[in-house]
Amino acid sequence: PNASLMNAAFIGYGTLTFLFALGLRRALVAARGASPGPAYLAGSGIAVALLGVEWLVALALRGGPPLPEPVALRDEAPLFVRVHDLLALAAYVFGTLACFATAATVRSDPRWRGYDVYSLWSGFLAAGLIGSSLLVDVRFPQALAAVGVGDGTLPAVLGLAQRVLTLDLEVWVAVIAARLLFLSRAHVLAAASRIG
Q: Residue 106 in contact with residue 32, Cβ under 8 Å?
């Protein structure tokens, strides 16, 4: 019932993440030289924005709300569900790569002390959650059904893992954004004190 709101949120969050990646690139290039971290983050933002656009296109093509995702019959899922899954995976993978690349870029910068370690831990958590989600998505339901447990559908733990993964990456973006804001304000204050 709230699909339109969620699609708007995907488009808005993805666009804002992309724009933040441009600002982060500018700041990191000025301080440390080129870094792939902002490019990965921009890729994540684009993929998230496309999640919203993709579902709106699916709605328009179907002439109404799409059918619910048939989690038990993934191979027979409509094309838009497969596209949705690929875009979500791309957003997660690019976000994870952004964590690792940013950690490597800011490692030797004393103004970012501790943020390299935080970025690494966020990246490792994200990578672990992506790996475990893929394992649960692909193997776990069928293995349980084979021994008579469950009906082969995805367990609720997959949804939990995806939400923790999303939270991890969104908090990482917010923490890096807050640090960048602090550094830019400190830079402006230092420049103002030299002038005045």
A: yes
Q: What is the mean pLDDT of the chain?
A: 80
Contact (CB, 8 A) for 162 and 133:
yes
pLDDT in tens, 35-76: 899 999 999 999 999 988 887 776 676 666 555 544 443 454
Measure the N-to-C terminal CA separation of the chain; round to a whole number of Å: 57
Looking at this protein, which amino acid is placed at residue 166?
T
CA–CA gap between residue 175 and residue 2 (Å, rounded): 29
What does the alpha-carbon distance between residue 116 and residue 28 come to, in Å, rounded to a whole number?
A: 13
CB within 8 A of 96, min separation 6: which ones? 123, 126, 127, 130, 169
Residue type, 41: L
- Tokens describing residue 164: 């923790």
Instruction: Give the whole-angstrom CA distance, residue 9 versus residue 26.
Output: 26
Tracing tokens 């949120």 back to the chain, one arrives at 9
- H or E element, residue 2: none
> pLDDT tens digit string along 85-140?
788 889 999 999 999 999 998 888 888 899 999 999 999 999 998 888 777 665 55
**Dihedral in degrees, nearest 10, Cα atoms 182, 42, 116, 88:** 120
Cα 194 to Cα 8, 73, 188, 190, 191: the distances in Å are 44, 66, 10, 6, 5
User: Which residue has tokens 């992309």?
Assistant: 18
Question: What is the residue type of 110?
Answer: P
